[in-house]
Amino acid sequence: MLTNHLKERLLPSAVVVGALLEYEPIANLSCQAFSIGGQQHLKFTRQGTWQSRRPHHRRLMSTLEELHDLFTAHGADRSVLKQFFYQVFFYICSTALNSILLRKDLCNWARGAQIRYNLANLETWLSAKELVPEKPGLQPNKRSSHQVTVGVDLPSENGQSLGTLLNPMIQACQLLQSKKGSPDKATVEAICQNCRNLTEAQIIKLLTMYTPVDGYEPHVPPAFLHAVETRLKALRVGEAGTVSFGSLQLDRSTLLLETGYSINLSVPYHASTVPLGHLELPVELGISNLILPL
């Protein structure tokens, strides 16, 4: 129900994509059109996309702020607050990752820089609201043929499941900005080690869809793709072949995520510190006949 409400009313997928993937906060770095000038220097041209997507970014951040204020005003338990935002951020991050895996126009160096900046804003917001690090306690309840759900059972001192939901998108940005040319051992190894939260299918898909700057960098050669794929298969054998997306364990063939994944909300019980026998109820309530003498 919460996920459907997020999709339909609070944060439709178009808002998430516009705010994280299409909004361009870095000035003079256009993702829409850039080419090599006559003096062989990189020339950027803006087409106003960042301005048209600024309302999306504002809506995303204001919605997060309003939801947090609502829970705080009603005195919600911190564990409930964290579980709620875990669900929200799972939807946001899975929607963003699915979109970048399906759109070739999002797979270039400049776009990677812009998206990384937008993700940094979310990291700052989570830190400011003290939502990371996070304690364990979430229990997923949805399964699929390619996604195996497990409980979030991370040590409290380093368990940051809510914050680590951003890791796959951060690593996708690093992949878009990394060196991709000669299939030398060091370059291939760096890509494999820096994409620990992306599946093999996702890494190869991003490399295949990568669009280089015309005349500035070469296309990703087939030999490089083969070298990365071979190295990933060698590194990820057996259980090591699965990667983490928050509390999900994804197998190597998983490409797109289920944005409708949901958790079972766990509401903790905290005994009242005020003895009920000391409470005085107003007679105006008319319920004195319902109260048994102690």
TrEMBL record:
Sorted alphabetically, which InterPro entries does this protein's record hold? Dilute_dom, Vascular_dev_regulator
Q: Where is the Dilute domain?
A: 1-234
Which first-to-last residue range defines the signal peptide?
none
The residues that cross the membrane are: none
- A Pfam family per the record: DIL
- PROSITE patterns associated with the record: DILUTE
Q: Name one GO molecular function term.
A: GTPase binding
Q: What is this protein called?
A: Dilute domain-containing protein
